Amino acid sequence: MTDKRNQGQNKKQKQLDVFKVNDKGKALTTNQGLKMSEDEFSLKAGERGPTLMEDFHFREKVTHFDHERIPERVVHARGFAAHGEFELYEDMSQYTRAKFLQDTSTKTPVFVRFSTVNGARGSADTVRDARGFATKFYTEEGNYDLVANNIPVFFIQDGIKFPDVVHAFKPEPDNDIPQASTAHDTFWDFVANNQESAHMIMWIMSDRAIPRSFRMMEGFGVHTFRLINEEGQAHFVKFHWKPKLGVHSLVWDEAHKLAGIDPDFHRNDLWNAIENGQYPEFELGFQIIKEEDEFNMEFDILDATKIWPEEVVPVKIIGKMTLNRNVDNFFSETEQVAFHPGHVVPGIDFTNDPLLQGRLFSYIDTQLIRLGGPNFHEIPINRPVVPFHNNQRDGYHRQTINVGKDNYHRNSLAGNTPAPVSPAEGGYEHYQEKVEGRKIRARSESFTDHFSQATLFWNSMSPAEKKHITDAFSFELGKVKSKSVKQQSVDMFANVDLELAKTIAKRIGVNPPTSGGSNVTASSPALSQQNTIFIPDTRRVAVILTKGFHGPEVKYVLDQLEGANLFIDIISEHQGKVSGSNGISIDANQTFQTAKSVQYDAVYIANASQTNREFNKDAVYFIDEAFRHYKPIGATHGGIPALTINKLDGKQGVIIGKDNMRKFSDEFINAIALHRFWDRKIV
């Protein structure tokens, strides 16, 4: 069984290995294989003469360099990816004929690309934005792409409006400012005049838009799809990725600072976790509605601005994905990978969601221009693990050498092959949905409720999350220059919650609305991060340590932290060995010049300096900032005075250990698992 489970993973790995080239130890050649004797100087007419046109090596080298970049994605330009595998927990054949969702003994190779939506390739990871979560399954029936986001709804309901919303949230066209931010006039003008965006805006203003890491965010297929079984029976489905580490976020001030200190924060986090063997895991879940229950909800299930509350339609966990290998080459894999919601396998089909229908055209059209033609499927990262046969020929960058003279259907020269196959033989068959009606440009009446689920989301938030949403609105609208746009936006969100709108209005200097509010009192506990998984695994802990630390006790604490699967950085006055009592020394790998508190989930102060006032000054700032970001802080022995200087002893989430290091370690690790202490009083 082990061989079978690894077969798919090994097949994709071997396929990629064919294209790998290691230049180490090799002779320099041109792209035509010609060995070259010189690569430092161009061919000239004399040592100080002009460069000659006949220098083919110079021309090839520089021409290739000039064309090394391809157009970046219009959206989701900044991404990072990893390889992995998907394993099924239970046979789902009662719902779908997709083979990779039936055989629990097979591991399916996957490639996952996480991304921001708004910013350019060079923007920062930690901006306020939705995140892409695209997964390519290399199945034995062909590639299946689950192109998801970390937010389960979207701004618009119809694909024809996609250019409008992207134009609005991108930098304003007159000055190309601001980058990777929606805190500007055109975006909020769009929001106020396209009120179907209300639910998405509540998510964007929430902590979900500033995730702690890619490893700690959910993924949602957004749209309603269909599952079709062997009998042709259909079920509606929404797809979910649930992170095993729980759903956690940054605070806004932290996200701002990380954008400058470590703009690759999420990239580094994912890369280092995999390199350290701390493989990210996500469970795949289905929300399923019977076809006959399509109209039994209070909203239209095809509306991409709506969720199916998990308390109403539970998420059935059916498998697990593990990301266990970093890419070998960012450009060849992460940048050239091409996702498309239309890449499906038998047993997975579409619905009439008008936003999904638009994506089915847009994604393929985008890949054609970005990757230079129709043969992007031949790029190694995009190739299926099964062979492909059809009458498509030629075009830019064709790699397949098709033999024979027949390239059309129907034919007799090749026995009318390649030939379609029946569904019983694995052929894809579209679900035979009955469709009838007049040709019309209109929106269904069932799509006109824009505020009830936005209020549901607000009602579901904890007090801390509500404060963060209010602060986010105040920041974003506070950056808007047009008073009219500010007023329109406040008036719009009075329909979500009147008190929220009044608070925002007061902060940004516009008239508070006098009417509005919502009759929706329901909440969905699943929407609040307060109800997520809280475990300490893979969190980053900054350990402040100087010469003369209490050797055995500190070493014991560090061993306990590492045993809890925590990642530790030692910050000292210098990098290298730091000596403590009992002949114990510990290697420091950071100083306050290379490490900042916003890069860590918790701080442990093992020892402060007795003589270095500058180091202690930096330590006080480091600790105070972590405290203000609601993070757990621990101190033992020589580190305790630093808490007294900051007046932090006795505060919530501050753990002190004097004698019993086992008790301290347990309490500190438990505090790290809780992520933040929102009830902490910040003065």
UniProtKB/TrEMBL annotation:
Belongs to the catalase family. HPII subfamily. There is a cross-link at residues 340-363 (3'-histidyl-3-tyrosine (His-Tyr)). Decomposes hydrogen peroxide into water and oxygen; serves to protect cells from the toxic effects of hydrogen peroxide. The active site is at residues 76, 149. It catalyses: 2 H2O2 = O2 + 2 H2O. PROSITE patterns: CATALASE_1 (PS00437), CATALASE_2 (PS00438), CATALASE_3 (PS51402). One of its GO terms (biological process) is response to oxidative stress. Heme binds at residues 73, 113, 162, 359, 363, 370. One of its GO terms (molecular function) is catalase activity. One of its GO terms (cellular component) is cytosol. Its cofactor is heme. It comes from Cerasibacillus terrae. This is Catalase. Residues 29-417 form the Catalase core domain. Its EC number is 1.11.1.6. SUPFAM superfamilies: Class I glutamine amidotransferase-like (SSF52317), Heme-dependent catalase-like (SSF56634). Keywords: Heme, Hydrogen peroxide, Iron, Metal-binding, Oxidoreductase, Peroxidase.
